[in-house]
Every structure is written in C-alpha cells, then in structure tokens.
Amino acid sequence: MELMATIADDLKLLGDKTRLTMLALLQQREWCVCEFVEIFNMSQPSISQHMRKLKTAHLVKEDRRGQWVYYSLNIKDKPHIQAVLSSLPAPADIVRKMGREESIVVCDPETSSCAL
Amino acid sequence: MELMATIADDLKLLGDKTRLTMLALLQQREWCVCEFVEIFNMSQPSISQHMRKLKTAHLVKEDRRGQWVYYSLNIKDKPHIQAVLSSLPAPADIVRKMGREESIVVCDPETSSCAL
DNA sequence: TTAGTATATAAGCATGTACTTATATGGAAA
DNA sequence: TTTCCATATAAGTACATGCTTATATACTAA
User: Fold this and answer.
1) Which residues contact B23 (CB under 8 A, 6 or more apart)?
2) What chain B residue is nearest to A9 in terms of C-alpha separation?
3) Chain B span 65-84 residues with beta carbon within 7 Å of strand D
4) Which has the higher per-residue pLDDT, A2 or B70?
C-alpha cells in the first residue's frame, strides 16, 4: 500500500502551520514570495525553503514573471489535499487575522519594488 | 490564528504512514493493540507509542477490556480529519493489501490469547 | 557593464521523530 | 501468591525538520 505512504507524505507537508496557511491562502489567488515574507513575517530563505518543499511535492506551481516568482495551487489530482483545504477557514479570514487588515504588499513592475 | 496551528498539529499526526493507516482502519471498527501489532508487522512498543500520540491528541479513545485495550475513532468534532479519512481507500481494501487477505487475529477471552 | 532587488541555495544548529531494546505495569489464570 | 500475557513506559540512537546566517543566482534598470 504505497498509496498510503504517498498520501502520508503529502499530509506531512500540511502538518506545518506555515505551509498549511500558505496553501490555504493560495486557494484565493497566486502569491509571490515577497508577499509571503511580509504576511508571515518570516525570513526570505525560510519562505523560499517552504515553497521548495511544496513545489517538489507538486502541490504548487511556480511562475517567474520578471524578478518575481508567483506560486499557485496544483492539487487538481489530489482529493485528500483538496479535502483538507476545503475544511479550513476562508482565505480572507485567515489574512484578516494575520496582523494586517488586508494584504497591502505590492510587487510593482513600474517601480520595480516589493514594499508595503 | 492559533486555529491553523491546531489543525496543522493534527495533520502532522496523519503525516505518518502507520498512523494514517491506523486511523483509516479505525473507520471500520475498533482495533486492539495486538491486532495492530500483527497487521502492521511492527513491534508492540512502536504500536503503543503511536496510539499514545493519537490518544493524547484526542483522535482516538481507548477502552480497556480485560487485558486488552481497544481503540476507536474520536473525531466527531474534527471536520479536517474527517475530510482526510473520507478521501482514503476503504478500510477493507487497505487490509487486503497489508499482507493478509483478511484480519484473522483473535483476542480471545476464552483462551486468553491473542494469536493468529 | 554596474548596481540594486527578488529569489534560491548552502551550511550549521537546535529540536523533533520513529524506531529499537529493556523494563515496568495491569489484569487473568493457576 | 506466582505465572503468564497484553500493554505501557523509559532510554538510547539515527535521522528528519525548521530555522538561522551567509552566499549565490536571476532579473531589471541605469
């Protein structure tokens, strides 16, 4: 039953508060690394390493646009992950409770800056 | 958002092949430790330690009857766990693939033996 | 090219995990 | 009681995890 092992490995990735929240937020829209750094109030390498794990497990897709890398969900073929994410609070509610009333991070191609 | 942390901690427990399978099997019926020892082909302390984690997280209840301890699911108030378990293969299919065609472990109060 | 920004990777460290073996506890039978 | 069986706990160990700091890479703009 290596299927159970595969599912367990996926769930292990969701067994971290940061990654679980990331996936929850990605249900709403794509996010770039600099936004996650801001909203999670964590170091950039830490965020980057979490995203690498999610990407390696094929739970997210990455899309580089200019100097920014945007991540989006990639769980169409993973009902167990969908099941978990569906049972979580709505992304907007999570964002609301994460310190900022709303995400006001801007990755602006005009000014080429990622700032509040 | 400590709710997310709580859910993540629950999911962390499901992020282990053995515990995930245990919970999947417990959907079908209650199981005693000696049955798990047989079907998982693992040491008794290892099984016992997994059950303690599940019990500490209130994901299972224990019921001692004679010298045996039976465990059953306790996730009525945990929709995220229910969501995961619902997405898994049926318990009978899991058992079928675990080496024995069916569980023929017997915890027999008459002979007071737990054997095949 | 050079400088600046965004992201990724590497290495180190503290902590957590899942097993092992050995031993303790709890209950049933003699 | 003593013995046996089922289960729990303790201690040790190998490995995994999540962070940190430092550095490398990728891209943009001047």
Assistant:
1) B14, B54, B59, B60, B73, B81, B85
2) B15
3) 67-69
4) B70
Give pLDDT tens digits for A57-88.
999 999 999 999 999 999 999 999 999 999 99
pLDDT, residue B99, reads 78
What's the CA gap between B85 and A80, in Å, rounded?
8
Q: CA A88, CA B7: separation in Å to the nearest integer?
A: 9
Neighbours of B86 (CB within 10 A): 11
Domain span at residue B75 reads: 2-115
Mean pLDDT along residues B13-39: 97
Q: Is the dihedral of CA A13, A17, A22, A23 positive or negative?
A: positive
Task: Determine the nucleotide nearest to B62 by Cα–C1' distance.
Answer: D7
Among residues B17, B27, B41, B23, the alpha carbon closest in space to that of A6 is found at B17
Answer whether A24's CB lies under 8 Å from A54's CB.
Answer: no
Question: Is the separation of the CB atoms in B59 and B74 below 8 Å?
Answer: yes
Rounded CA-CA distance A23/B41 in Å is 35
A49 CB closer than 7 A to any strand D atom: yes
**CA pair distance A67, B59, nearest whole angstrom:** 45
CB pairs under 8 A between A and B: 83
The model's pTM: 0.91
The pLDDT tens digits of the residues spanning B75-115 come to: 999 999 999 999 999 999 999 999 764 556 667 766 666 66
As for how many domains chain A has, the answer is 1
Domain at A74, CATH number = 1.10.10.10
Q: Please compute the mean of the pLDDT values over residues B53-65 and round it to a whole number.
A: 97
